[in-house]
Specification:
By secondary structure, the protein is mostly helical. The chain is about 50% helix and about 10% strand. The longest helix is centred in the middle third of the chain and has 31 residues, at about 65-95.
Length: about 210
């Protein structure tokens, strides 16, 4: 399974993994959402068969008022996540009935640790390049600006409101990622630093 950003390093690493497995004689099928793109690294060329599950695309809106933009995009994310879970559940059912030995799972562009991990009944190997930084680390820049004494009271209150919405969205994504990652049979990290970061964020011991 792959739902990483098209042309990213995560997609390239996954492509090389699938290519290597297929080259060693393993039967590898690719499971993706209909929004998945393969412009630079065509993973499906290295797989035996490709299974596509329809889902509407998620994108963020840009508005003149940053606070309204944050609120609207957060509400849109809350509405999209149940759809993502439902589609992942359907995909997991198809995989569980496919007679596979194991599932290699790459990161998800929406939720770093995919919902698919929750519903698999066979061993899963989650290739986690790194937990989502924007969902698990404090927003230092906004917090620093909020405390600037040179800013007006209104400006500081406005930035505090924006920061609160961002923290709320990050908390939702971080909780979902952690719950999903903890369902993986095994997690693979790219380095010992990533291994420590995975344990810090997900509470799971990964392997390098």
């Amino acid at each position: 399974f792959d739902n990483s950003c098209s042309g990213s390093g995560a997609q390239r690493a996954f492509y090389e993994s699938v290519k290597g497995l297929s080259g060693r004689g393993h039967h590898v099928d690719l499971y993706v959402f209909s929004t998945y793109q393969e412009k630079l690294f065509v993973v499906s060329n290295a797989a035996k068969e490709k299974f596509i599950f329809p889902i509407r695309i998620f994108y963020t809106l840009s508005m003149k008022c940053y606070f309204i933009e944050r609120v609207v995009n957060f509400l849109r994310l809350l509405l999209y996540l149940p759809l993502l879970r439902k589609t992942s559940h359907k995909m997991a059912y198809k995989i569980n009935e496919g007679g596979y030995d194991a599932v290699l799972i790459n990161v998800c562009d929406i939720i770093r640790a995919p919902y698919l991990l929750r519903y698999l009944a066979i061993p899963s190997l989650f290739y986690c390049h790194a937990p989502s930084r924007e969902a698990n680390e404090p927003l230092h820049l906004l917090r620093w600006h909020r405390r600037e004494k040179t800013h007006s009271v209104f400006t500081r209150l406005y930035q505090t409101a924006c920061l609160s919405v961002s923290h709320l969205q990050n908390a939702v994504k971080s909780y979902a990622e952690k719950k999903n990652a903890q369902e993986a049979t095994k997690i693979i990290g790219e380095s010992y630093y990533v291994k420590e970061y995975i344990y810090k964020v997900y509470g799971v011991l990964a392997e390098v």
